Amino acid sequence: MRILIVDDERIARESLKHSIIKILGPDTPVITAQSGAQALEEAAAQAPDVAFLDIEMPGMSGLELAKALKERCPGTNIIFVTAHSSYALQAWRLHASDYLLKPADEGDIRTALETLRIPVRKQEETPGRLTVRCFGNFEVFCNGEIVNFDRKGAREMFAYLVTRRGSSASSGEISGILWEDAKDIKLMKTYVRQYYQSIRDAFRQIGTEDVLRHTRDAYAIDPEKIDCDYYRFLEMDPVAVNSYRGEFMVQYSWAEFMVPEMEKIGKN
To answer: Is the dihedral of CA 147, 177, 151, 215 positive or negative?
Structure first.
C-alpha cells in the first residue's frame, strides 16, 4: 500500500507518517508533500493507494487537491486529516474515504485504513485483474487505472451484469433496465449489442476479455475473475462491510433497489 501525506506543517506530516508506519510496518512506502503542487508531482510518479490530506493549506487547499487527485489518480483513496470539522460535508461530496480530526490517534488511522472506499490490490494478486467498485459511484479499475468505455451505456450495462453475479441477462432484460420507457425494443437490443462490443473492446485492450460470457441473446460475466467490494460484502468480509455507507452505484437509478437488501445484510 503506497501512502501520500500532504500537510504544510512538517510536525504534522512526520507525526502522521510515524503512526502509519507503526500500523502498516516499516517497509510501507510513505511519501510526504508540503503543498498541493508537490503532491500532484509525487502522485503522478507514485500513484498512491491512499492520500492523507490537510484541508487548510496555502495556495491549493486540500479540497482542491482532492478534486485534482481524483481526476489524475482515480484509484486513490482520499482521507482528510484536519483541525476543522466544518468541511465534512464538502469532503463527503468528494466521496472521501474518511474524515479525521487532528490530532488523529492511531486507532482512528487504523480504522480509516481498514475501511477504504476503493479496494487496494494486494501484492500477491494477479496483475491485470479487474477491480470493480460498487459502493459510491460505480467504477472499474485495472492495475490502479480507471477503465474507460467509449460508450456511456457500456459502463452501465457492465454495472448491471456485475449485480447479476454470473447469472445471464437477455438483451430484452438489459434494455428494460437501461431504458425504462423504451418502446422500440428492436432498436434498444441493437444498442445492447453495441454496448457489449464496447465492453469487449475495452477489456481486450487490457487483457481481461475473458471476464465476459456471451451466448446468443444472453450476456453475463465471470464473477471469479473480478475483485468486487459488493461481492466481498455479500461474503461478510469485514473490510467491505465497514466500507459500505448506504451508497450503491449512485449514478444509476435502477441500482436503488439493491440498497434495502444491502442494509438488511449489513445488520445481520
So the answer is: positive
